[in-house]
């Protein structure tokens, strides 16, 4: 099976988020339903849509669809973030603080567990700061394949699309892997650095949610 990648347009944000939701809602650790216990309601969709729309004003983000080349049907999605310049540690801390403030100012929305989402974001930020500091990097923020289309190469296609750009830019690549993504990333040159320091049991979540921080070294272009 072969795949092609198309960039998400602004009028396709809901479609992109729906694919991501369907993939994550089916994961055994049920993390998606801890974050969004109400499921994909109109209000949840509006919240996700606004977050995606806001990030589109930053050209460092790339949202893409993975399509079956013969039918053009969407089978998966990916979101990459390319930080092409080094930041000082102060800039990293300031960015984290800005995100923290925005989360604190977020009005409650029924069906969304902002406390759990915030803990996850804090765990992500602290691990990334420890591992990368302010170093330029490519970050795989989301990789998701519709359950019915999994294990046919779509995830690898979305992964390779970003890695090719990371290599052209001479950037290391970083991500937090789920149990499903972990073997795929290992096959593509990522090494585990540590587990994400996340304790979902304090939110009453009965499933184990282990994620691994993984790093792939920058490729030297003249090799
Ligand atoms: C991770 C994910 C994107 C992989 O997508 P995919 O289209 O199935 O990936 P590919 O077909 O390109 O690659 C499959 C490889 O991934 C790994 N993999 C995929 N699903 C897996 C599963 N359920 N259990 C273990 N390994 C799995 C295997 O290494 C597999 O290779 P193999 O089929 O040769 O054994 C997909 O499983 C998914 O959307 N999962 C839910 C969301 C998620 O966890 N995303 C990753 C967040 S970091």
UniProtKB/TrEMBL annotation:
InterPro entries according to UniProt: Acyl_CoA_acyltransferase (IPR016181), GNAT_dom (IPR000182), Trichothecene_AcTrans (IPR052523)
Domain N-acetyltransferase span(s) in chain numbering: 64-219
SUPFAM superfamilies (alphabetical): Acyl-CoA N-acyltransferases (Nat)
Protein name: N-acetyltransferase domain-containing protein
Species for this entry: Aureobasidium pullulans (Black yeast)
């Amino acid at each position: 099976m072969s795949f092609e990648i198309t960039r998400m347009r602004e009028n396709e944000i809901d479609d992109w988020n729906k694919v991501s939701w369907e993939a994550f809602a089916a994961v055994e650790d049920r993390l998606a339903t801890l974050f969004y216990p109400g499921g994909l309601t109109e209000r949840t969709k509006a919240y996700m849509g606004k977050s995606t729309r806001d990030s589109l004003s930053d050209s460092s983000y790339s949202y893409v669809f993975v399509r079956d080349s013969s039918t053009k049907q969407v089978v998966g999605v990916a979101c990459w973030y390319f930080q092409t310049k080094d930041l000082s540690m102060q800039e990293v801390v300031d960015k984290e603080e800005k995100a923290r403030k925005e989360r604190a100012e977020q009005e409650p929305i029924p069906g969304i567990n902002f406390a759990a989402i915030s803990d996850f974001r804090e765990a992500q930020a602290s691990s990334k700061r420890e591992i990368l500091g302010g170093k330029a990097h490519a970050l795989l923020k989301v990789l998701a394949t519709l359950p019915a289309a999994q294990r046919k190469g779509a995830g690898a296609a979305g992964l390779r699309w970003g890695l090719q750009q990371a290599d052209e830019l001479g950037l290391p690549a970083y991500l937090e892997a789920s149990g499903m993504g972990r073997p795929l990333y290992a096959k593509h040159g990522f090494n585990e650095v540590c587990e994400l320091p996340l304790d979902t049991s304090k939110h009453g979540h009965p499933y184990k949610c282990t994620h691994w921080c993984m790093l792939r070294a920058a490729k030297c272009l003249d090799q």
